[in-house]
Amino acid sequence: MSLAAAPETVESFAQPEPRVQCADVAFACRRGTHRVRVTPRYGGTTEVELRYLWAGAPGAPTVIVQGGISADRDVCATAGHATPGWWETLVGRGRAIDLDHVRVLAIDWLDADDLESPSVSSEDQADALAALLDTLGIAHAEAFVGASYGAMVGLAFAARHAERVGKLIALAGAHRPHPYATAQRAVQRGIVRLGLDRDCVDEALSLARQLALTTYRSGEEIGRRFAGGAEYRDGRFQLPVEGWLEHHGRRFVARFDARRYLALSESIDLHDIDPRAVRVPTSLIGFASDRLVPLSDLCALQQRLGAPATLDVIETPYGHDGFLKEHEHLAPLLREALNTWSTP
Predict the structure, then answer these.
(1) Domain chopping of the chain, boundaries
(2) Quick one: how far is CA 208 from the chain centroid?
(3) Among 43, 55, 47, which residue's Cα sits nearest to residue 102?
(4) Which 3-state string (H, E, C) describes the chain?
(5) β-strands 143-147, 168-171: how paired?
(6) Do residues 156 and 40 touch, judged by C-beta distance below 8 A?
(7) Tens-digit pLDDT profile for the chain (344 aa)?
(8) Which residues are catalytic?
(9) 242-255 and 201-216 helices cross at what angle (nearest 10)?
(10) What is the largest CA-CA distance in the chain?
(11) Cα dihedral sign, 81-82-83-89
């Protein structure tokens, strides 16, 4: 295990020599939908419409990249989708996951309604990705890079489809959820269900997201940013942190469905992978202030994995959201891991 403090200023990092030289070829992008067949853990075999992005250098190795439950297939901006992606700082031409040298594959998460199933599992997402590889004619992905829920799905993929991937890079995700985290998410789902019952879904979903946000960040960061006394406005006392929470709650409601949130939140808590079944070389990355995925769980995972594994720990005030905030420190770790290529 290596431990490093996140840098205070942006650094420049030298690009290691890539395995495939693709800088002179055209950028390719397929952003579409394929129908794939899956057999959900909690239901019968069905066909689903899987929305995906496959972007990068034609002929380059494919790297699967997946994020948290609120992430989608748009990890980076493309010609057909100009809005910056959720991992724009790390995925792109010349970036840590360099689209001049790899081709990134990402999907929109399936939910229970998609599968016509009582719930959706991390194994279902992994099987859908494997089916998509078949449809696209990809025999072997060089790596699976997963963060948060994406790391859980990456572990499921490596356990079930080890022959389809050369390396797993898992950020802020373990083989099972920690009971503290399941308690937090249970309360969040209870708020949303109450909103559905009382016909105040938007308000409930906003509150659930606000509560979730307090678990994504560390007490250190929140304490530093929102210290100060309450102000009396609009007929009540308002605390400094409230505006920030409400802003993020509104943003989430504008782009997320309540029932989809329930299904994917539950999927995290149903996740349970036997580490010994993961026989793919693995790079684990954790965040020292992460309360949802504590380092003790990552240490246990590293010790029990069925293949060689490393664990890097980043000191950060951003808690679980470190995988979204600490791009300067993550960039060299991702480059190093991705340039240790596997042999199919």
Answers:
(1) 2-175+272-338, 179-267
(2) 19
(3) 55
(4) CEEEECCCCCCCCCCCCCCCCCCCCCCEEEEEEEEEEECCCCCCCEEEEEEEEEEECCCCCEEEEECCCCCCCCCCCECCECCCCCCCCCEECCCCEECCCCEEEEECCCCHHHHCCCCCCHHHHHHHHHHHHHHHCCCCECEEEEECHHHHHHHHHHHHCHHHECCEEEECCCCCCCHHHHHHHHHHHHHHHHHHHHCCHHHHHHHHHHHHHHHHCCHHHHHHHCCCCCEEECCEEECCCHHHHHHHHHHHHHHCCHHHHHHHHHHHHHCCCCHHHCCCCEEEEEECCCCCCCHHHHHHHHHHCCCCEEEEEEECCCHHHHHHHCHHHHHHHHHHHHCCCCCC
(5) parallel
(6) no
(7) 555 443 332 222 223 333 333 334 468 999 999 999 999 999 999 999 999 999 999 999 999 999 999 999 999 999 878 899 999 999 999 999 999 999 999 999 999 999 999 999 999 999 999 999 999 999 999 999 999 999 999 999 999 999 999 999 999 999 999 999 999 999 999 999 999 999 999 999 999 999 999 999 999 999 999 998 999 998 999 999 999 999 999 999 999 999 999 999 999 999 999 999 999 999 999 999 999 999 999 999 999 999 999 999 999 999 999 999 999 999 999 999 998 754 44
(8) 148, 290, 320
(9) 120
(10) 65
(11) positive
Q: How many CB atoms lie within 10 A of CB 130?
A: 19
- Residue 227 has which token pair? 């210290």
- As its CATH architecture, domain 179-267 has Orthogonal Bundle (1.10)
Q: How many residues does the chain have?
A: 344
Structure tokens at 241: 């942190």
CA end-to-end distance (rounded Å), the chain? 27
> What residue type is assigned to position 69 of the chain?
I
CATH topology of domain 2-175+272-338: Rossmann fold (3.40.50)
* Nearest-angstrom CA–CA distance, 258 and 198: 13
pTM of the predicted model as reported, rounded to 2 decimal places: 0.90
